[in-house]
Amino acid sequence: MLKIDEEKAQKMVYDNTRKELNEMAREEGVKEPEELPRKMSVAKEILRARKVKKFVKKPTGLYIDE
Fold first, then answer.
1. Which residues lie below 8 Å from residue 39, measured CB to CB, with a gap of 6+?
2. pLDDT of residue 15
3. R_g of the chain, CA atoms, integer Å
4. Shortest CA distance to 25 belongs to which of 4, 44, 5, 2?
5. Of 64, 65, 20, the residue nearest 42 (C-alpha)
6. Measured by CB atoms within 10 angstroms of the end CB, which terminus of the chain is less buried, N or C?
7. Which pLDDT belongs to residue 53?
8. Cα angle value 27/1/30 (rounded, 5°)
9. Are 46 and 62 in contact (CB under 8 A)?
10. Cβ-contact 47, 5 below 8 angstroms
11. What is the pLDDT of residues 7-60, one digit of tens each?
12. What's the maximum distance between 2 C-alpha atoms anywhere in the chain?
């Protein structure tokens, strides 16, 4: 699993510029991607954020109003 993520991150680094990676990171919810030192760091944060989004609890709308 870790190796697959590493390969995806490398592909993102080769295919995108730093500006594009920063934009993608902001869309995924990474705060201040400009402060990360390398393109690879930004790519890994993007992949981590995408993975986390799968497990975030979403509201169901089944709340009872009193």
1. 13, 16, 18, 21
2. 95
3. 15
4. 44
5. 20
6. C
7. 83
8. 20
9. no
10. yes
11. 999 999 999 999 999 999 999 989 999 999 999 999 999 999 988 887 777 666
12. 54
